[in-house]
Amino acid sequence: MNQNTPVITVKNLVKKFGSFTANDHLNFEVYKGEIFGFLGANGAGKTTAMRILCGLSSPTSGELTVGGFDVYRQTEQIKRNIGYMSQKFSLYEDLTIAENIRFYGGIYGIPVKQRKEKEHLLLKKLQLESERNKLIASLPLGWKQKLAFSIALLHDPKIVFLDEPTGGVDPITRRQFWDFIYEAAAEGKTIFVTTHYMDEAEYCDRVSIMVDGRIAALDTPDALKKQFNSEDMNGVFLQLARHARNGD
Amino acid sequence: MINVENLSKSYKDVKALDDISFSVNKGELFGLIGPDGAGKTTLMRILMTLLVPDSGKAKMAGLDVISEYKNIRQLVGYMPGRFSLYQDLSVEENLEFFATVFGTTVAENYELIKDIYVQIEPFKTRLAGKLSGGMKQKLALSCALIHKPEILVLDEPTTGVDAVSRKEFWEMLKHLQQQGITILVSTPYMDEASLCDRVALMQKGRILCIDSPARIVENYTRTLLAVRSNEMHRLISDLRECPQVETAYAFGQFVHVTPKEEDLEAVELERYLLGKKHQNLQVFETNPGIEDVFMGLMAGNE
Question: pLDDT digits over B273-287, tens only?
Fold first, then answer.
């Protein structure tokens, strides 16, 4: 992680829906190669902030850049420079492995010639060359996860947004998935990840915890545990989120 | 209250349930613990008389799920995994609808749902589709309880729910159990197993193990070492390269290591890691949790 190179900068982000303030003056930076955990109770405003960072929604006010691009004026450039994956939305089950790679390559606007080369390299890297014509639906969950993550990186984005990537996944596959995350971060990718598994919060370089539209805490897991005098991140989370007003 | 014998169900060539047998006692809080694809929902749908098994028998409160399905439906409450109330009816309309369908009134059974329903009552005129996730969940639970069922079946009620709301939800379940309701609940969160009286650990249509959470952990005989250092990722790689290590998995701030030979001692592993220049090392023998046991059993079920 390189603290001198912020790839996401958020200054005084405010997002209102009518009279409701979903994001109330958020301030943070995310660095190159960092694994940044974005935690919060349901209804705390995580999804709203994430949609803004992905260029899908405009802030009410504040200054934000993602990968050096402005979130008000350069949303198309942002979309080209980020990857996105969630448990709910990843691959098309009724397309084959190769078809999914080709499809996403097209969506991300990779030129045809490069797309073929990328497809070849990816299949080789994942050792899936002989499986290329298998339907996604027929693959074990661990492979699907790995493939979905690799495809989110296909267009070589600087930042990858992972929205609850491990929900409902078995404990071994869940840990394998974190191996991929570490690997990508080591290659300089910035990882922005949400999760409800508090043990996964421990694997992040820094963790932000949102409560009622604000960032209630942001630091390394070790520092947060010290600050809240808690043995694990679950204890930290419970202390902060217990008295939330919004949402539930 | 629930009796399942040799239940199997396939979808084309996928075995969703593979010869499942277990029973749940009256008043018990029983958990089906397992990831997506374990067969939890299929099992619940069969018990709820919404799906017919390929083979095997299942009884709810002594009634057969096939021949006596109509009687079962009066006795059970079901909260499916996907929100399935009427989004375009208000909170109170939904509750009244379910009471009427079961030939009762909200007033008659209000006592049972009171603690849960008061939390959403301020929003009773709001459309169900406009509720937050946590409120939807409370309404769904109220609707599943409004006919005072003997057995309550909940399919992954806490999936995608934050840690605080999950804790609250389990407190609600404990409270319902104290009122004599038998509860069958499924979850992919291994840490929730400890909140059940007994659990079945499930994977790929099979039950890996059934017992109380405490006994499941006690019966795990493998040695388990907890390790931490300054560099988590390098630590995992180094541990996996160690010839005496069978598995090394991250568990929060520690890595849990299962040695190949039972006699690999903490000091020995520490020496190996010091050789790899790890700093602030901690290595000690630790007690397994449900998740450790599950991962151990998974390896045998592949």
Answer: 999 999 899 999 999
Instruction: Delimit the domains of chain A by residue range.
Output: 2-241
Is residue A68 left, alpha or beta, with left meaning phi > 0 and alpha meaning psi from -120 to 50? left
Using the 3D structure, point to which of B218, B243, B267 is the last residue of a domain: B218
Give me the CATH topology for the region A2-241: Rossmann fold (3.40.50)
CATH number of the domain that B230 lies in? Answer: 3.30.70
Residue B293 lies in a domain: no
Q: Work out the minimum CA distance from A246 to partner chain B, whole angstroms.
A: 9
- Chain-wide mean pLDDT for chain B? 92
Q: Using 50, 70 and 90 to split pLDDT, how confident is the model at B134?
A: confident
Task: Report pLDDT for A1.
Answer: 63
Distances (CA, A) of B258 to B139, B214, B246, B248, B287: 44, 20, 6, 7, 12
Residue among A175, A198, A222 minimizing CB distance to B163:
A198
A contacts of B164 (beta carbons < 8 Å): 41, 237-238, 241-242, 244
**Contact yes or no for A173 and B35 at CB 8 A:** yes
Q: Interior CA angle at A21 toward A19 and A22, to 5°?
A: 135
pLDDT tens by residue, A61-89: 999 999 999 999 999 999 999 999 987 66
CA angle A198, A202, A207 (to 5 degrees): 90
> Quick check: is B173 in a domain?
yes
Contact A42 B232 (CB under 8 A): no
Of A42, A167, A172, the CB nearest to B165: A42
Report pLDDT digits (tens) over A208-226.
999 999 999 999 999 999 9
| CA separation, residue A22 to residues A14, A17, B110 (Å) | 8, 7, 34
The secondary structure of B41-95 as a DSSP string is HHHHHHHTTSS--SEEEEEETTEETTTTHHHHHHHEEEE-SS--S-TTSBHHHHH
Is B51 in the same domain as B186? yes
Quote the number of domains for chain B: 2
Find the mean pLDDT for residues A225-237. 93
Same domain assignment for residues B166 and B232: no
